[in-house]
Amino acid sequence: xxxxxxxxxxxxxxxxxxxxxxxxxxxxxxxxxxxxxxxxxxxxxxxxxxxxxxxxxxxxxxxxxxxxxxxxxxxxxxxxxxxxxxxxxxxxxxxxxxxxxxxxxxxxxxxxxxxxxxxxxxxxxxxxxxxxxxxxxxxxxxxxxxxxxxxxxxxxxxxxxxxxxxxxxxxxxxxxxxxxxxxxxxxxxxxxxxxxxxxxxxxxxxxxxxxxxxxxxxxxxxxxxxxxxxxxxxxxxxxxxxxxxxxxxxxxxxxxxxxxxxxxxxxxxxxxxxxxxxxxxxxxxxxxxxxxxxxxxxxxxxxxxxxxxxxxxxxxxxxxxx
Length: 322
Prior knowledge:
Layout: E1 5-10, H1 14-26, E2 30-36, H2 40-49, E3 53-54, H3 58-63, E4 67-70, H4 74-86, E5 90-94, H5 101-114, E6 118-121, H6 123-126, H7 128-140, E7 143-151, H8 167-177, H9 179-190, E8 193-200, E9 206-212, E10 217-223, E11 232-239, E12 242-245, H10 253-270, H11 278-296
Parallel strand pairs: 1-2, 1-4, 2-3, 4-5, 5-6, 7-10
Antiparallel strand pairs: 7-11, 8-9, 9-10, 11-12
Helix pairs in contact: 1-10, 4-5, 5-11, 7-9
């Protein structure tokens, strides 16, 4: 690795324009090497805006970087992450890592074989106030139950979201887009998930019920079709030390993303895994896939699949989803 980590970005969409590229260009600890996108003209425009260069192919970008940041749909991200890891590049990925367990596991396997560092960007986990709250909750333990509401209005009738025409969000809905955010807070606090069921609500709304290792229970309501007046995020934990509520976000996603870059730099420098690495991303994918299977069964009864050895949210062996 060079003294300053060289990072290039894969992707040119609204999230890359709003968060990834500006945060990378402003970060003092990295060199923003360049941009590749599926639309060359968009890559050229985004690169010019931030004083860097476009690349004709992902492999060309890999050749000039130490790490890659990905801001692409998850099915596209997974394949490119495997290729980047095989080229020896560290990974700064977005949630979800993938929308199938096989694709997410392929990313983990490629990162393990190459020995590269990885961080998956869950916005709430890297927010200053939210991240500190989650760390305190995980350290305290003793939680009995919890509930999360993650309600967006991307697909509401009065939406003005830049993501309203996102094909993968249209296909996979709230479960895969904002479900990872809820899980990124519930799993560290309450423990790994042993059992999940899901039921449909209005629009793409999904109601999740989770049983965690150790016996704690949680539920979550996720949606991208909530009316704008009803949109928002809340997470409440109940346990031996009382009740605690997720604090409101104090900063924009660019601040959280800069902290994710910091986390990758630390993982590269120390060789130590970050708690939000690709293994955690795989575990979140496994839980979501089990929830999706439950929806496919009509939302009645348990559904899920076996978890590979060493695939737990904490990096240890995880119990199967049943």
